[in-house]
Amino acid sequence: LDYIDKLCLFETRCYTVDCIDLHGKGVLETFRFQPLVMETQNVISCQSRDDSVFIVNMTSSARTIDSLRFVDQSGGRLQIIEPAGGIDGKTFLIPGKDSLRIRTRYTPNDPTKDRADRAYIRYRDASRAEWQVQLIGTSVAPKIFITQLTAFGVVEVGDTRQQTVVLENTSSLPVKIDSL
Questions:
Q1: Which of 21, 37, 90, 170 lies 20 to 30 angstroms, CA to CA, from 130?
Q2: Dihedral sign computed on CA atoms, order 61, 82, 67, 137
Q3: DSSP one-letter string for 20-89
Q4: How far apart are CA 165 and CA 149, in angstroms?
Q5: Which comes out higher in pLDDT, residue 141 or 13?
Q6: How confident is the model at residue 28 (pLDDT cuts 50, 70, 90)?
Q7: How many angstroms separate the CA atoms of 29 and 59, rounded?
Q8: Residue pair 99/54 in contact by the 8 Å Cβ criterion
Q9: What is the distance, to the nearest Å, from the Cα of residue 177 to the centroid of all Cα atoms in its chain?
Q10: C-alpha to C-alpha distance for 97 and 56, rounded to whole angstroms
Q11: What is this structure's pTM?
């Protein structure tokens, strides 16, 4: 699909208008992603979570996608777990009005800080148009503030002293303290 358009810039101080002709190729709506951007959010830093993204064929006829590549910028924290064996270099035929499900796993594996990681699934369709699905994983690390070590000093027999230890959850997720 070829299109022609015009971009006009208005400069208000000098009252000038400059226009540029635009020519380009458009792609008819062939695919969409569900969700548009796959966000696996707030995974506890020492755990993992599975998620799915669907490449939906919006046309009524079968479409082939090929040259699939998993571009991992997360250092291995985001992984493709289905289809089995990954997607790199594979070709898939998606029937009309159907979808291809890609399952992922996000494992932050960093208990010291909250993370935000990113990866992409890239592919081409039969017209050689390039497509890209964005995957984002975020983690949260439980954080607890505890008052400094409290020393009672010298306590004689029969004396009592009371001190307070404060535990405060400073993270965005609930934390269970099962013993002190």
A1: 21
A2: positive
A3: EEEEEE---S-EEEESSEEEEEEEETTS-EEEEEEEEE-SSS-EEEEEEEEEE-SSSSEEEEESTT--TT
A4: 8
A5: 141
A6: low
A7: 8
A8: yes
A9: 30
A10: 7
A11: 0.71
